[in-house]
Amino acid sequence: VDIMAAAMSTSACTASTKWCSTRLRVSQPFKAGCIAPPRTHHTAPRSTGSQLTCRAAAAEAVQEATSDRDDSQVPSYAQNVPASYTVVDIGGHQMIVEKGRWYEVNRLEAAPGSTIRLGRVLAHKANGDIRFGTPYLEDVAVHAKVLDHMQGEKITVFKYKPKKHYRRTNGHRQQLTRFMVTEVLEGQEAGEAPVAVVDENPAAATEEAA
Length: 210
Description:
Elements: H1 2-21, H2 49-67, E1 85-90, E2 93-97, E3 102-106, E4 115-118, E5 121-126, E6 129-132, E7 140-151, E8 155-161, E9 166-172, E10 175-186, H3 202-209
């Protein structure tokens, strides 16, 4: 009788253990000899009434703050827009330039200290009036001074082919030119022919070429 009772107790405990392992949370306490299953994850606590009230109050505060914002405010990407600017095509890129600021483009064939003339003007804004070229504005030109030639940040290029034992790592540093916009000319001062680069002293350049 004792052997049969022990066998029945063992089978009952085994069945209880299997039942416990299939449930992550058991409302009833475990029986004697039952091994608790490992806890695989933590369940998030349920939101109480006070938490929901706080969230609703915070949402209302945010809505009131945004509703009080006047229409004069603009998004961050539209802030500090200059009153006058020029869009030029230089070095294979279209750039928005302003007088008195410096920019970096791909290497230009101009010596440091020389003056370049950007004749490929796509658009120009001044005194609240903006004009667009077709494709360029012939009566607008940008003069700039070349400050220095430099190299950009190093770019690592990695090539890989699976199952071919092919791996190549190369580096590249783009050659750049930094220039500062000195003036923006309009009308007859801009000139007729769009010259890409003009030396500061054309006579000296002619003598050196000769």
